[in-house]
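Propose amino acids for all 317 sites.
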């Protein structure tokens, strides 16, 4: 984590929702920020630019006691993620990665910067130049955000809930006003039987025997054997990437993106035997930030990413 003083004034208080972020992306005139634009059909290239974006997965540190509030549980006693900045300690900061047409590679020129606990953070880089005197100078360059998700595994009776914000930055009084927790539910693609998409009314996946169950999701989400064969999983990248990180052991979420374990939609390896949270402890959670790739202005756009989330397959099989 970069700990130096940011050249950008960070916002505090109520977090903006995804619509505000998208609006900022389209209209921002922040100095030095490259603004991806909508794809144009008039491109001189015969092939479309690659779809790409930058992302980071930070493991959240839940403070179970000592914040003056009791454990957070639902009415059946299952643990829930706490709500309130004071309930989260220092995160385990992940590396920044680049997704490009299904290939995941490290992006070491980028880093995660959160000035202090509870404040908003950025994926950022430094741009290097020379001033009027010929002296080298560096400019802090935050990337433009596409989406932010907090994804939690609350043990076997509540294996996944999520919210579209960085929960570690939201004050208790603001959470239920601007945000909510949602269970993992699915949409069965009517045009391609067996294809599952996150966000929908269904509690089970669309196809039988998916290759990503139980690697990514427990078998409680499995479809009956009468269902058509599984044709893959799609939906918001932030939730999919969060689930991938939570399938690794604590402190090692980044292992999900190394060595081609997730490549062109295929998953390799198996779920870590230590991925589940302790039955008597707090839930496990990650924060996933996705930003536009300023090195690919034509292919890293809101329209391109959103269209893939709606129609593409992030995980095959």
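Proposal:
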């Amino acid at each position: 984590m970069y700990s130096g003083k940011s050249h950008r004034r960070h916002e505090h208080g109520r977090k903006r929702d995804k619509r505000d972020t998208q609006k900022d992306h389209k209209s921002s005139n922040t100095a030095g920020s490259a603004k991806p634009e909508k794809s144009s059909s008039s491109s001189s290239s015969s092939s479309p630019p690659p779809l790409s974006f930058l992302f980071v997965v930070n493991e959240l540190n839940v403070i179970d006691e000592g914040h003056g509030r009791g454990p957070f549980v639902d009415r059946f006693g299952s643990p829930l993620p706490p709500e309130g900045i004071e309930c989260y300690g220092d995160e385990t900061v992940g590396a920044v990665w680049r997704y490009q047409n299904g290939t995941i590679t490290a992006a070491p020129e980028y880093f995660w910067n959160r000035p202090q606990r509870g404040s908003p953070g950025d994926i950022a880089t430094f741009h290097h130049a020379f001033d009027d005197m010929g002296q080298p100078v560096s400019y802090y360059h935050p990337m433009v955000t596409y989406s932010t998700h907090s994804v939690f595994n609350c043990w076997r009776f509540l294996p996944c809930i999520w919210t579209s914000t960085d929960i570690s930055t939201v004050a208790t009084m603001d959470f239920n006003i601007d945000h909510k927790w949602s269970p993992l539910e699915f949409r069965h693609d009517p045009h391609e039987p067996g294809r599952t998409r996150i966000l929908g009314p269904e509690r089970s996946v669309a196809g039988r025997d998916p290759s990503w169950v139980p690697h990514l999701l427990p078998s409680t989400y499995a479809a009956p054997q009468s269902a058509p064969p599984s044709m893959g999983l799609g939906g918001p990248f932030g939730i999919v990437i969060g689930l991938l990180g939570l399938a690794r052991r604590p402190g090692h979420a980044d292992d999900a993106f190394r060595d081609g374990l997730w490549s062109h939609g295929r998953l390799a390896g198996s779920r870590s035997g230590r991925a589940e949270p302790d039955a008597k402890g707090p839930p496990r959670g990650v924060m996933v930030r996705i930003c536009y790739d300023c090195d690919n202005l034509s292919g890293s756009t809101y329209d391109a990413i959103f269209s893939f989330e709606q129609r593409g397959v992030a995980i095959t099989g």
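The chain has four helices and 15 strands. Residues 1-44 have pLDDT under 50 and may be disordered.
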